Amino acid sequence: MKLSPELEAMLSELATLCCDALEPSQTLNHARVESLCQNLSTSGWKRHSRNSPPLSVVLKDRAKEQRPEITIHRGGELDAVVGKIQSVYDDVSRMQASSDEESPAGTAMPPRTSLS
């Protein structure tokens, strides 16, 4: 799948956040995850990934490539972390889709008439 440099950077950073969350005494940076998921959704990740695996699978594979030494021993934790990110992305996408439906672009205004 050919992705734009912007999408590649966002996916790479999300994979890094996954790996960081697996380190002892580290947690997932939820604010950064939400921001990146919003950017992914806005940038058209769903359109680009139409025939690809879900975001959680893509992130898991990228995390394993980035830091195999930590991800190989913490598969269950990695599954939980990417599951949380997938959930955030799904929520953001759903909210964006519902806001798009509420305010459709290009809605025609009724004609104005002037009666004298």
Distance between the termini: 62 Å
Helix content: 55-70%
> What would you call the structural class?
mainly alpha
User: What fraction of the residues are assigned to beta strands by DSSP?
Assistant: under 5%
Number of domains: 1
What is the string of helix and strand elements? HHHHHH
Number of DSSP E strands: 0
Largest sheet: none
The backbone outline, from C-alpha atoms, is globular
**How many alpha or pi helices?**
6
The parts where pLDDT drops under 50 for at least 5 residues are none
What would you report as the Rg, rounded to the nearest angstrom?
Answer: 19 Å
Mean pLDDT: 87
Description of the structure:
This protein is mainly alpha-helical. It has one domain (5-101). The protein has six helices and no strands. Helix 1 crosses helix 6, helix 2 crosses helix 6 and helix 4 crosses helix 6 (75-102). The longest helix is centred in the C-terminal third of the chain and has 28 residues, at 75-102. It is globular, with a radius of gyration of 19 Å. The model has no long low-confidence stretch (mean pLDDT 87). Residues 92-116 are annotated as: Disordered.
Task: Please specify the SSE layout and strand pairing.
Elements: H1 5-22, H2 30-42, H3 45-48, H4 55-66, H5 68-71, H6 75-102
Task: Throw out a few tags for this protein.
116 residues; mainly alpha; 6 helices; globular
In short:
Helix content is 68%, strand content 0%.
